[in-house]
Amino acid sequence: MKIGVYVCHCGTNIAANIDVVKVVGYAATLPYVVVSRDYQYMCSDPGQELIKKDIYEHKLDRIVVASCSPAMHEPTFQKVLEEAGLNRYCLEMVNIREQCSWVHMNREEATRKTMVLVAGAAARAALLWPLTAREVNVTPTALVIGGGISGIQTALDIADNGFRVYLVEKEPSIGGRMAQLDKTFPTLDCSACILTPKMVDVSRHPLIELMTYAEVVDVQGYVGNFKVKVKKKPRYIDTAKCTGCGLCAEACILRGKILNEFDVGTSKRSAVYLPFPQAVPLKYTVDKDNCMFIRYGVCGKYPACKKVCSSEAIDFNQKEEFVELNVGAIVVAAGYDVFDPKIKPELGYGLYRNVITGLELERLCSASGPTHGKIKVDGKEPRAVLFIHCVGSRDAQVGNEYCSRVCCMYTAKHAYLIKEKLPNTKVTVCYIDMRASGKGYEEFYKKVQLEGVQYRRVNVAEVYQKGEKLVARGEDTLLGEPCEIESDLIVLAVGLTPKKNAKDTSVLLRIPQGSDGFFLEVHPKLRPLETTSSGVFLAGCCQGPKDIPESVAQASGAASKAVMLLSKGKVLVEPFTPQISEDICTGCGFCIEVCPYEAISFKDVNRYGYSVKAASVNEALCKGCGACSAACLSGAIQQNAFTDEQLLTVVKMLSGDT
Amino acid sequence: MSGIFKGAFEPNIIAFLCNWCSYVGADLAGISRIRYPANVKVVRVMCSGRVNPLFVIYALRHGLDGILIAGCHPGDCHYLQGNYIARRRLVLMRRLIEYVGIDPRRLRVSWVSASEGAKFADLVKEMVDEIKKLGPIEQFHENI
User: Fold this and answer.
1) Beta-bridge mates of residue A338
2) Half-sphere exposure (Cβ direction) of A111: Cα atoms closer than 13 Å
3) Is residue B141 over pLDDT 60?
4) Given A570, A593, A619, which residue is the final one in a domain?
């Protein structure tokens, strides 16, 4: 047995708080250690070469690397071992960056801890044995959760690569937030005009199965082989028969009585509805929370919608359905929620009718919106409009410290649209810091200013009514004095927040959320599309606020990650299955009881001429948790790479009781 | 006995963390630079359900002053139910060690998700403070 120990400085990340040279000196005194070295960046090419050279020259057979978290570089160093002819599982990593130098500031204590950890790792390394990773097949199908622009782009890209895609959207139509927008900054393209062709492409693509008004309720399995359960909510409309004519909505007795979510409450709809005219699929949906017939069992003498539907598409007997899907990869494109400005009551949202959000203004600007693109407040055109930036963003008081990234620019666009529609209206924007960092954004911002929009660096503290006017009171931070600005309409540039059900999705897919509530990528710079749940990828605003070009780019990136996995057809699974010593097994069956995958069963073995029962593991079913090893009374079951002996040796070394 | 008792008592604590949630949570504490005492040393296991009660006895016997076992939150286990198994086992284990005269506060089972870096750091701080009050584990260590 010959062990090589390598301690990384990680520039100064480790070396600043740990006396690396002392650790290396100590490691050289440990049993079986023949080489002990330190290096500036162990993961760099020369660092890797150093290990390889030692493996050849000193005939090393076990390697200990003390550096960053194994989550970061275990695969890197495993590859080094393989390239030098060693088995990849003959590596033991010591996490002295994330779990030592970054959290302990006392150099002496951190060094002492590192020495103990390295001693434990070297002792364990001596007990490691070569293992072979198992190959399992990948189901060549993907699931995309969320039918906004990110989900649409992801689904199209995966399907265009020749793989089958299930696109699950919880609303009756795909399109997401982008469908609600009027124009997009900085080019002022009409949002619907660039989005709807893609929506139609999704519905027509032979490899995409669109599941709208459906939700993912359960996810089991692992990379390459997920089993997903989808709940299809009843539409009470037979989509095969519905022609999308809309007679039912016109006939509905609740017509014009229910707030339309798509128009963010700026218009009213019927209980049977199409969210917006370009909806895909173009099928109506009965809103069960409002429909009189569903709620009370009666609706006049006979439901009016049923009476007028000549294709007999309305079916009140529909029940929710559950569908099981087998997929190899999952892309989460669940989107975002808009910050609820009622959380900041000082801004008067919900109190004054002429305080609205940016998204509401978006619907008012839209030609297909409730006012057909006319901006009116109580029937009158506003003579003065005031925008307030950073509502619910960069605000520790409401718990959102992050910048929502799109509000500066969408407000600039809104200001421009108002100047375009109402040239004589005075437009003022109260900003805190102006952020216009995208392609063509700064130019657009300049253009908006040239249109006569006044930008003032004002922190608005409160909004109150004075006669027919609204007054925003705050501090002009450039002049350093209090100010009051009068207007007829106040538009709040509300930020983006994680979906209300983000926690549920996080639990469902076992993907962590960051402190801001958005889903966490594996690495903020180098692995922004992957999650710690292998085979689950992220696209769009569920990972953090983004504008449309960024969402589309990330969606294509996530699609390509998914395609990489699907096209490989095979995935390697860690070989942490148990070994069973049939001679020691007493046949108690505790392992069978604790195994969550029913991977262990009894088999008959011949022991000194007697047939006895002994545990036997089905490696194809085993996921490698090790619960059986912990349950075994006789020590007959030992999990590969986590045997009792290996772990107890570490415990002993860490106790310092040697 | 090792040299850790020189000067003020600094407890020696071992933490078994599951690979999927708690280990990632501990890494997050590092990435967020949340400081906590160096008394804790981490052993990575694939699942909290892998922790054999034997490990606890063995650790106490070798003079470790505290043992922390952390896994995914109930319902979030990467292996469906490993953390439930760990909980059942270790609740029993706490009663057992109390029965043999060891303060059960030395054995702690907790759930730390991949996004709870701060929780992990707090947990370590709490445990270190608590075990400092309890003092070094000597009886079990010397008797066996």
Assistant:
1) A496
2) 15
3) no
4) A570
Task: Give the pLDDT of residue A9.
Answer: 97
Average pLDDT over residues B128-137: 93
The ipTM assigned to this model is: 0.94
Question: What distance in Å separates residue A273's CA from the closest CA in chain B?
Answer: 37
Distances (CA, A) of A27 to A11, A35, A65, B93: 20, 9, 11, 35
Distance CA A195, CA A187 (A): 15
Structural domain of A281: 247-308
Regions of chain A short of the pLDDT cut 50: none
Look at the pTM and tell me if it is higher than 0.95: no
Note whether residue B3 is domain-resident.
no
Q: How far is A99 from chain B (nearest CA, A)?
A: 6
CB contact under 8 A, B31 and A647: no
Give dist(CA A642, CA A625) in Å, integer.
Answer: 10
Task: Find the CATH number of the domain harbouring A606.
Answer: 3.30.70.20
CB-nearest partner of A109 from B38, B78, B114: B38
CB B32 within 8 A of CB B61: no
Q: Are A657 and B62 a contacting pair at CB < 8 A? A: yes
CB contact under 8 A, A102 and B30: yes
- The total domain count for chain A is 5
Looking at the structure, do residues A599 and A636 belong to the same domain, yes or no?
yes
pLDDT the model gives residue B7 = 63
Residues A566 and A623 in one domain: no
Provide the residue range defining the domain that includes B127: 11-143
The model's confidence at residue B77, banded by pLDDT at 50, 70 and 90, is confident
* Calpha distance B22→B19 (Å, rounded): 7
Claim to verify: residue A196 and residue A325 sit in the same structural domain = yes
Query: What span, in angstroms and rounded, lies between the C-alpha atoms of A500 and A289?
Result: 20
Contact A513 B115 (CB under 8 A): yes
Among B35, B79, B113, beta carbon nearest to A103: B35
- Closest residue in chain A to residue B52, using alpha carbons only: A630
pLDDT of residue B3: 44
Q: Please give the single-letter amino acid code of residue A176.
A: G
Which pLDDT value is given to residue A251?
Answer: 95
**Cβ contact A103–B4 (<8 Å):** no
Please indicate if any CB of chain B lies within 8 Å of the CB of A626: yes
Residue of B nearest to A575 (CA): B46
Q: Is the pLDDT of residue B109 over 80?
A: yes
Q: What is the pLDDT at residue A520?
A: 87
Using a 10 angstrom Cβ sphere, with 0-12 exposed, 13-18 middle and 19 or more buried, the burial of residue A370 is middle
pLDDT at site A513: 82
Q: Do A103 and B64 touch (CB under 8 A)?
A: no
B32 contact residues in A (CB cutoff 8 A): 515
What are the two backbone dihedrals, phi and then psi, of residue A517, each rounded to the nearest 5 degrees?
95, -15
Residues A261 and A326 reside in one and the same domain: no
Tens digits of residue pLDDT in A431-461: 999 999 999 999 999 999 999 999 999 999 9
Per-residue pLDDT at B50 exceeds 90: yes
Q: What is the DSSP letter of A300?
A: S
Q: Does A654 touch chain B (CB under 8 A)?
A: yes
| Cβ pairs bridging A and B (under 8 Å) | 151
Q: Work out the mean pLDDT of chain B and round it to a whole number.
A: 89
Chain B environment of A626 (Cβ under 8 Å): 45-47, 49-50
- Decide which of A65, A94, A125 is a domain's last residue: A125
Q: Are both A366 and A491 inside the same structural domain?
A: yes
Residue A14: enclosing H or E segment and its boundaries?
none
Do A253 and A270 lie in a common domain? Answer: yes
Which among A71, A100, A109 is the nearest to B24, CB-wise?
A: A71
Interface residue B120 vs chain A (CB under 8 A): no
pLDDT of A514 reads: 81
Rg (C-alpha) for chain B, rounded Å, is 15
Question: Based on the structure, what is the number of domains in chain B?
Answer: 1
